[in-house]
Amino acid sequence: MKKQHFKFTTLCMLGLGMSQMALAETAPRQTLPSFQAKDIPAMCNAKIADVKKQLKTFENKPLKNETAAAPVLAEWDRIFASFEDFYGPIGLYSNVDPDEALRKAAEDCEIKISQFQTDVYQNPKSKQWIKCLFVVVLRQSLAPRANKESK
After folding, report:
1. 104-108 contacts at long range (C-beta below 8 A, 24 or more positions apart)
2. Could you tell me the domains of the chain?
3. DSSP string spanning 45-74?
4. 9-58, pLDDT tens digit by residue?
5. What is the pTM (predicted TM-score) of this model?
6. How far is it, in rounded angstroms, from Cα 106 to Cα 89?
7. Are 93 and 102 in contact (CB under 8 A)?
């Protein structure tokens, strides 16, 4: 009986292991992009320009009291997630790449990115827009409570 239990347990474990291997092989692997020192300045400027364009479009969308906050915040997150996908590897290469020219180009890009992020978060229009969004979120979170209390 113990041998049969052991065989069954072994079979189950093998089955789990095989399914994990099958899943591991089908999942796409993320790798770091390969940068050339000469390409980084142009790529950096292009990515910052792209994010600026996306933010301008984002800021020009009207924000009303009945606007759902989740889709708005999801779009903000999408914009900055794609930006982070670019500057994350740049930050890594600026610190660990053996090529001095690539490290220098990546460091220069990091400085531009830092200046851009400061401009975004200190932009009066962005601040006002974020305050309006905060009011919308606050109203939406208080509305269910007010409805419950009035009943």
Report:
1. 104/37, 105/35, 105/37, 105/38, 105/40, 105/41, 106/35, 106/40, 108/40, 108/41, 108/44
2. 36-150 (1.20.1050.40)
3. HHHHHHHHHHHHHHHTS---TT--HHHHHH
4. 766 666 666 556 555 555 566 688 888 999 999 999 999 999 999 988 98
5. 0.68
6. 9
7. yes
